[in-house]
TrEMBL record:
One of its GO terms (molecular function) is 6-phosphogluconolactonase activity. InterPro entries: Cycloisomerase_2, Haem_d1_sf, Lactonase_7-beta_prop, TAT_signal, WD40/YVTN_repeat-like_dom_sf. It comes from the Bacteria. This is 6-phosphogluconolactonase (Cycloisomerase 2 family). GO terms for biological process: glucose metabolic process. Belongs to the cycloisomerase 2 family. Keywords: Carbohydrate metabolism, Glucose metabolism, Isomerase. PROSITE patterns: TAT. PANTHER family: 6-PHOSPHOGLUCONOLACTONASE, 6-PHOSPHOGLUCONOLACTONASE-RELATED. The keyword Isomerase applies.
Length: 372
């Protein structure tokens, strides 16, 4: 049965006061409460570091970082990357990638800041190869992708390859040129799936040590503006949230040959915001609504790859800009609530309960979590 809930900021703040009771309830249900770390990027040019123990979020540190639009932890767990979504760096028209070392307790120390290629302005997202040897940056303003080579330990990234994109769409306000929004590695680790909001296409790029090359272009609906991507753990279904026409699509993907085969389902549910996938592969989380204030939970029928909505949470203008899913938790970064909303997820099917306002962060932009 489809469930709907409505929430507002006053309600969240009241729930925070009962967090200890909620924690006891969660523990009674047998949910794990092992300590974690959470890194939340802020539009105040900061990263907030939290020690997370169950429902208790304790602020450990605040470090300076220019517009941290995307945060990613290296597989070696010793380095964190922050994409600086800026239009200039060192008096040149380019964005940058900031690197931090992680101490054993999870605190950060600024290590380096690397310029992206010239005209690589307003970078939006970084994805790491599973082996930690390379990264790909989607550059929204500059219409390109940068391949980063990661040296020993990953602390000194260098631009090793550039792929410049072209194209446009029918939306005269948002599609005058290419605007890459996101990239992610497929399960073979040798290819990257990308979304381009400006040219209405999703692509498969082949990755080598020194270059990015186009393996496949796949056109989406004119004016759709594909932006957010997530790949099923099995590697054979790609979910895409389209920012401009606010639709949600699933595509059949062939990881062996690196081919997007066809669209499985197209849903016009006003769901063009961030996506997250429950680790079980049974549930997809989407953000939509006029103000990106509706969280929806979709059951994934694995055989045909069909989505069926079974939960909705109405956050009442709680604009949400990022999500991260774990086995027992979904974190939603809310710009309007100035913080991180924590939902408890059923480990088996991803069904949600809660939430609480776990932490307050001014103008939150991004989140990354790490188990200790």
């Amino acid at each position: 049965m489809k469930q709907r809930s409505s929430l507002n900021r006053r309600h969240f703040l009241r729930i925070v006061g009962t967090a200890s009771l909620a924690l006891r309830t969660s523990m009674a249900r047998g949910l794990p409460s092992s300590p974690h770390l959470a890194y939340v990027g802020s539009g105040h040019d900061e990263i907030h570091v939290f020690q997370v123990d169950g429902l208790n979020w304790a602020l450990k540190q605040i470090v300076a970082c220019k517009v941290p639009a995307s945060l990613t932890v290296h597989p070696n767990r010793r380095t964190l990357y922050a994409i600086n979504q800026v239009a200039d760096h060192q008096h040149l028209p380019t964005g940058s990638v900031e690197t931090f070392t992680l101490a054993p307790d999870g605190t950060l120390t600024a290590f380096s800041k690397t310029s992206l290629s010239l005209s690589a302005t307003l970078p939006r997202h970084l994805t790491l190869s599973p082996d930690g040897k390379s990264a790909v940056v989607a550059i929204h303003g500059g219409g390109a992708y940068n391949l980063l080579s990661l040296l020993e330990g990953g602390q000194c990234p260098q631009v090793a390859g550039i792929l410049k994109e072209t194209g446009c769409g029918p939306d005269a306000l948002h599609q005058l040129s290419a605007h890459p929004s996101m990239a992610l590695f497929d399960t073979t680790h040798g290819r990257v799936l990308t979304s381009d909001t400006g040219s209405d296409q999703i692509s498969v790029l082949a990755v080598s040590e020194t270059s990015l090359t186009v393996h496949q272009r796949f056109a989406t609906d004119a004016g759709s503006g594909p932006a957010h991507l997530v790949l099923h753990p099995k590697g054979d279904i790609l979910f895409v949230a389209n920012q401009l026409n606010r639709s949600l699509c699933s595509y059949k993907y062939d990881p062996e040959h690196g081919r997007i085969l066809h669209c499985i389902q197209r849903i016009a549910e006003d769901t063009g915001g961030p996506l997250a996938l429950h680790p079980s592969g049974r549930a997809l989380y989407t953000i939509g609504g006029r103000e990106d204030d509706v969280l929806q939970v979709w059951h994934i029928d694995r055989s045909p790859g069909i989505l069926n909505r079974f939960q909705s949470w109405h956050l009442h203008s709680g604009r949400s800009v990022a999500m991260t899913a774990e086995r027992d938790t979904l974190h939603v970064v809310s710009e309007t609530f100035d913080g991180v909303l924590r939902f408890t997820a059923d480990p088996a099917d991803g069904r949600l309960s809660g939430p609480i306002l776990a932490a307050e962060v001014p103008e939150p932009l991004s989140i990354a979590t790490l188990s200790m």
